[in-house]
Structures are given as C-alpha cells and as structure tokens.
Amino acid sequence: MQQTFPGLLMAHAGQRPDAPAMREKAFGIWQTLSWSKLAAMVAEIAGAMHQAGLRRGDHMVVIGSNRPRLYATMLAAQSLGAIPVPLYQDAAGAECVFPINNADIKFAVVEDQEQVDKLLELREQCPQIARIIYDDPRGLRKYDEECLTSMDDFLAQGQAFTKQNPQFVAGEIAKCEPNDVAAMFFTSGTTGNPKGVVHTHNSLLDRASVGARFDKLTPADEVLAYLPPAWIGQNIFSYAQWLAVGYVVNCPESAATVTIDLKEVGPTYYFAPPRVFEGLLTSVMIRMEDAGAIKRKMFHHFMDLAKRVGPTKMDGKSLGLFDSLHYALGDLLVYGPLRNNLGMSRVRVAYTAGEAIGPDLFSFYRSIGVNLKQLYGSTETAVFVCLQPDHQAKADTVGVPCDGVEIKLSDSGEILVRSPGLLREYYKNPEATAEVLTADGWYHTSDAGFLDADGHLKIIDRVKDVGRIKGGRFDGAMFAPKYVENKLKFFSFVKEAVAYGDQRDRVCVMINIDFDAVGNWAERQNLPYAGYTDLSQKVAVYDMIKECVEKVNADLSRDEMLAGSQVSRFLILHKELDPDDGELTRTNKVRRGFIAEKYSALVDGLYADKKEQFVETQVKFEDGRTGSVSATLQLRDAQIFEPVKQAA
After folding, report:
1. What is the mean pLDDT of residues 277-306?
2. How many domains is the chain partitioned into structurally?
3. Does pLDDT of 136 surpass 80?
4. Within a domain: residue 447?
5. Is 180 contained in some domain?
6. Euclidean distance between CA atoms 176 and 4, whole angstroms
7. Residue 191: what pLDDT?
C-alpha cells in the first residue's frame, strides 16, 4: 500500500502525525497543516467525491496555484482510484477544451473565481462537466449555478460521510496498486494538440525516490512550491518527492509575494528554470549599480575573487590558505548577505532545468556558495533521467544517468532512454505512443546530444530542429537553432530569441530584450524611453544587442561543428513574445513555426537585406480584450567570423 501516493500519506500520518506537512501563507501569516490533519482532510474530500459520483478510473481536472486543499484534492482522487489531471492556471479557456474533452472530464476542482469563470464559459464546448468545486470563495457569493460547490461545503459533506463510513476511504486506498494510473499531464502542444502523458504511481514515485536518494533528502528539508502544478517538474519536486520523503512544502500567498516568501521560508531544496535565476541575478545587479561607490567597489572585488576560486571550492577542492581566508572574508561581507537577499541562505541543493543555463550565470551562483546543479528529463520520463553529482557540476552538461536509467544514441544522434519512470502511454493516442516507445522499452527523447569523456550527457538541440545551411558562405554546415538561441539568452539583456536558418543561406534571429535589464541600462545611459516598443527600437539598444550577437558569433566560430550557425542578421521585436498570443507555450518554449508564420514579413525582410520593416501585431490583454501594436523595426547586420581550426 505504501508505494502509492495515498499509501505514503497514510504512512506519514501514522508515523509522525503532528509533524508539519504543508504551510500556506494567508493574509501575511504562515499557517501549518500537519500530516494527520492533511490525512483527515483528504479522507473528507474523498468521501464527498465518492458521494458526488467520482469513480475508479475517472479523470478529474485540477486548475490553480499551489494550495494545500488542491494538493489534498489530488490525493483524495488518487485514494478513490481516480486520476487527477492538473492544467495550467494561466491557460486561456480555449486551451482547456481539448484536454477536458480528451479525458472526458466531468469533475473539476479549481482555485478561484477566475478559474470558475473560465470553466463556465466552456460549458457549450465541454457539456459533460457536471461539478465544479472552488477553493477560494471571494467574488463567488452571488453565483447561482447548480454545478458549483464551495470547498467548505464539500468538506462538510465529506465529514458527514466519513462519520457514517469511517473505514470507507482506508478501504479504497488499500485497493490502489503501484501500477495503477496515478496522474496525467498534458504536454505543451507546440506543434498541434497537446498529448496526455499517462503515469503510474510506480513511475512517478520510483523517479522521485531515486532523486531523493541521490541528493540525500530528508523530512527536515523544506521547499517553496511556486511554479505551476500542471508542470511535471513542480509536481515531482512538491508532490511526488514530498510524499516519498516527507519534507515540508510551503505555498506562497501569491505570485507577487514569491520573492518575499522565498526569503521568509529559506528553503533547503530549491528548483527554478534558468529564467528565474536570471531574474534574481538581474535584480541584484540593478540594485548594486545604484549602490554607493564603496559598496560597489567591495562587491566587485569579492565577486572577482568568487569567480576565480568559488567554483573550485564548490567542487570540493583545496584553495590554499590565503584564498581560503580571503573567501571567508568575502562570505562574511558579500556572499552570505547576497545569499540571504536571494532567499538562498539555507539552500543545500538547487536545480535548474528546462532550458540551457548560461555558464556565467551558472558559475555566479556556485561561486557564492549555492550548490546549483542541472538535471535532464521530461514529462514522459517523470523528470529524472540525468543528475549532476555534488562536486561534478558542469555548465555545458546535464549530468550523469541516475539509478535505473540506460541511455544510448541512435545513428542520427538522438538520445534514447530506458527507465522505470517512462510514461505508460499517450492517452487515446496509440500512434503517438508507438512513435516514442519501442517494443523493447526505449523512449525516443527527440533530443540530439552525446556523452562526454566523463559520462556526462550534453544536449545540442531537438533532433527535428537540427538543420543545414543551404548555399552561401557556410553551405552544408549544421544549424542548431536552440543552441544559438540559448547562447544569446545567456546575456542578461536578451530575454528571448528565435533563430531561423534551416535550408537558407544564413542564420537570422529575432530578439526580445529584457525590459527590466535594458531599462535600467538605458537609465544609466541617460537614454529616455516611453515603453517597451520605444526602448526596443533605440539605436543605442541595437548597438548594445549587436555586441551580444557578435560575441556569440565569435564563440560559435571556435566550434568546428557549429561555426556555420553564426548570426548574419537580427532584429529586435517591438513586443514581448507571450503565451496568450500563441507565441510561447505555457512552459515558455518558443513556437518557432507559429512565430515564423505570424511574423513572415519580418523573416522575409531579414533575408531580403532590408534595413527596416513596418509591422502591426494583434495582441491579447489579460482581461481578454484585443488590441494592436505597430512599429517600424530596424534590421541589422552582424559580423561573421572565420571558423577557427582546432589543433590536431
């Protein structure tokens, strides 16, 4: 029984009933929920769900932020043998239609009024939805819909049911088997409808336990759950590993308070995509530029020291007496206060994944004493495929295969994985399942890469995206768009990049600037601007971005395989790429094909050697209204460098 999610919950509740399981910040005060109280809540919700008609094998949608009662809802569904399906809370209503209909969802549990309104609007397209339970009642008092029930009322119904049937939920939990389906996660759907990835209790808990053993996680650890629960990365760290280990999950009050809550909680185990680490560092550097001269000088002095010796210290190597004392002084004056300011004073293990992280950014965190590492995985692999051991963290790899994982490369360079954490199937999609799972259990990742001399995996790009330059100076050369995009995003001024070049005579790129970083830079340059569009088209901004592009080109020229991927021309987009406008997925991956079609005039202008191009773009606002943004964009050339031949 214990190797299922509800079985683990009951084990924690029985072995340490009063230990904290979750904390939630409400009205500025942290509220603690013990394992015994959580188990009682799960039993009450499960009883009410059974009364409402949820049965073994049914799917139930969950939409909202990280909230204890939503976590309890997922556990309650699993207790009955039903299958929770988390969806992104910031997804537009239209994006929810396919998953809801594909999984035949009749039962929905949501966080607040925003999600209730979204589902009520979808009733014509999803008529099977019969019951919507909401957690936060604010704004919903006067709603008069038969299908709506507040979580408070639902819990009261469940409490009455469990009093009359005290052993019912325990009996249902006993029926759960490790190989039963535990959850379904929908992919981003970058090239079509999203696919429902089916995972069992065993596939999720096996990988969660392997990761926990690898990093020696204990019940004393704490995490901050602030990323979308619909993303399997958040679900593994704050749900599967939480139940496998029994540590404390802390839920922020809101997205706006995450930075403050991070400092208050002081997690020991932390996960964030590179974008979050970049944002934290950018905010620090912006504040430091505004500090007094003495503070700035001290900061830069000790950061130069940290850059030189910090990674060596983090790798467990000796520094020598002078450097050790010097670093200790830096830790007292700069690194310690900086970690505290970032909310990482207690971080023992920090991970980043999802995108490549810049070597300078990676080294920065490790140099100030944050044990930042990279991992490799996906929704289909239950995340943990490769992990970086302590003292073996490299900026350009994603670690070594973890326990139970086999890796091999196909003739095309595609990475194939065999692991206990693989998906069972894509729901109602046998053709797609057959495309990624071989008869002997190998999963096609669609990623191209190789194992280095130390056995660490290095990712180059998506196999389907790796192309060839056709004609021109680098005819026949390999083109790896994601590799180029990630190198550009290593600069704090570049938030997003979209590269084109396959079957073309050169590489061209569209760039989004980071408004905060470039805005702060512009203010220091006494450069006035009226907003994002105005700032993005400033000549000085183009000059600065051109320097970034040419540094990337110089770096690429030293790579024999990728020298042909140097950027010949670029432009800066007049608006930020946005999931609501269809340009990014909900996990912030660029939809390169969609963007090429939407901005075809800009792509054509880059390849036609135009100097400028007018564009008008429709945008969607948060309240659902639409508008347009127009601008005349500059199209710039960048210097291309001769490939540097490597010594034999």
Report:
1. 86
2. 2
3. yes
4. no
5. yes
6. 7
7. 61
d(CA 136, CA 129): 20
Residue with tokens 């061209």: 508
pLDDT-above-90 percentage for the chain = 75
Q: Give domain status of residue 13, yes or no.
A: yes
Q: In the chain, what is the greatest distance between 2 CA atoms, to the nearest angstrom?
A: 80
Q: What residues contact 281, with CB distance under 8 A and at least 6 apart? A: 361, 364, 365, 492
pTM for the structure as a whole:
0.83
For residue 508, being part of any structural domain is answered with yes
Amino acid letter for position 408: K
> Rounded CA gap, 308 and 323, in Å?
10
Which range of residues forms the domain containing residue 20?
5-203
Among 170, 203, 236, the domain boundary falls at 203
Spatial contact of 570 and 507, defined as CB atoms under 8 Å apart: no
Is the CB of residue 381 less than 8 Å from the CB of residue 443?
A: yes
Span 519-565, pLDDT tens digits: 999 998 999 999 999 999 999 999 999 999 999 999 999 888 789 99
User: Which domain CATH number covers 148?
Assistant: 3.40.50.12780
* Tokens describing residue 278: 């970049």
CATH of residue 492: 3.30.300.30
- pLDDT mean across residues, the chain: 92
DSSP 471-514: SSTTTT-EE-HHHHHHHHHTSTTEEEEEEE-TTSSSEEEEEEE-
CA pseudo-torsion sign 424, 429, 431, 436: negative
Domain end marker among 169, 203, 237 = 203
In order of 98, 434, 440, 488, 557, the CA distances from 507 in angstroms are 36, 34, 39, 13, 13
> Are 432 and 192 in contact, with CB atoms under 8 Å apart?
no
- Give dist(CA 16, CA 82) in Å, integer: 27
